[in-house]
Design brief:
Radius of gyration: 20 Å
Helix content: 55-70%
Distance between the termini: 10 Å
Length: 238
C-alpha cells in the first residue's frame, strides 16, 4: 500500500496539495496582522491612516523599487510613520548578502516581515543558518523561497524542526543535502503539522526512506494540518 501512497504524493499530490495549501497561504500571518491592524485602525483618525499608508507606499517605491500598485497592496498589511526601523531591517539584509531585488521579492510575498525585530529576529535567524556552514547564497535562497521563516520562532520552531529533520534523514542513511529545497519545512509547525503528518504516512504504511524522499522533493506537502493531510491520503490512496 505504501507504494500507492508514495506515488500519490510523489506524482499526484501536486494539484491536491495546492488546493489545500491555498487555504493556508504563506501570508496567513500577514492576514492576521491585517485583522489586528484593522481593529486598531477603527479608533484612529482617517487622516492619520491615510498619512501612514502614503508614507509606506512612498517608502516601498523609493527603497525597494515597488510599483505603485505593489506598494499600495503591501501597505494594506503594514503601516509605518518613520523610516528608522525599516532602514534597520533592510540594512541587516543587505549586510548579509541580500540584494535589493531579493529583499523586494521577500517583502512582496510577506509584507509583515518588515515589522520583525532587526536584531532579535532577523539577524539571529540569519546567523543560525550561517552557523550550519552553508554558503551565503544558499542562506539567501532559503529566505527568498520561504520569507515567512522570519515570522517563526527560532527557539520554538526553526531549531527543533531542523534537528528533527536532520535526525530523520541521518537515521535513514540520507545526506541532508541542500537546505534550499527544504525551506518550506521551516514554516511548518513541528508539533501541529510536521510530526502529525509524518505519523499519518507511517500509519498508512509508507517506509521511512520514502517519507524522507517526499520531504526532499515536495516539502510543501507538509504545510497543512493533520486532518487535511490525512484527507488527501484517504481520498487519493483509496
Amino acid at each position: 500500500m505504501f507504494n500507492t501512497i508514495y506515488r500519490v504524493f510523489l506524482h499526484g499530490i501536486g494539484s491536491s496539495s495546492v488546493r489545500i495549501i491555498s487555504q493556508f497561504p504563506e501570508s496567513r500571518f500577514v492576514q492576521l496582522g491585517t485583522f489586528a491592524s484593522a481593529a486598531t485602525n477603527k479608533s484612529k483618525p482617517r487622516l492619520e491612516n491615510e498619512n501612514q499608508e502614503n508614507f509606506t507606499v512612498n517608502y516601498l517605491m523609493n527603497a525597494l523599487g515597488f510599483s505603485p500598485e505593489k506598494a499600495l497592496s503591501a501597505s494594506k498589511y503594514v503601516h509605518f510613520d518613520s523610516t528608522e526601523k525599516l532602514d534597520a531591517v533592510i540594512a541587516v539584509w543587505k549586510s548579509h548578502g541580500f540584494t535589493v531585488e531579493e529583499i523586494a521579492h521577500m517583502v512582496k510575498r510577506s509584507p509583515s516581515i518588515l515589522v520583525c525585530d532587526p536584531q532579535k529576529t532577523i539577524l539571529q535567524e540569519i546567523e543560525f543558518f550561517r552557523s550550519l556552514g552553508m554558503p551565503e547564497s544558499d542562506m539567501v535562497s532559503i529566505f527568498c523561497g520561504a520569507p515567512n521563516i522570519f515570522r517563526r520562532s527560532l527557539e520554538k520552531q526553526i531549531i527543533p524542526s531542523y534537528n528533527y529533520i536532520k535526525s530523520l534523514f541521518e537515521s535513514n542513511g540520507k545526506s541532508f543535502g541542500s537546505l534550499k529545497r527544504l525551506a518550506p519545512i521551516f514554516c511548518c509547525d513541528l508539533r501541529s503539522q510536521l510530526l502529525p503528518n509524518i505519523e499519518v504516512l507511517r500509519e498508512a504504511g509508507v517506509l521511512e526512506s520514502k517519507i524522507v524522499e517526499l520531504l526532499q522533493t515536495q516539502p510543501r506537502t507538509q504545510m497543512v494540518g493533520r486532518e487535511s493531510f490525512k484527507m488527501v491520503i484517504e481520498c487519493r490512496g483509496s
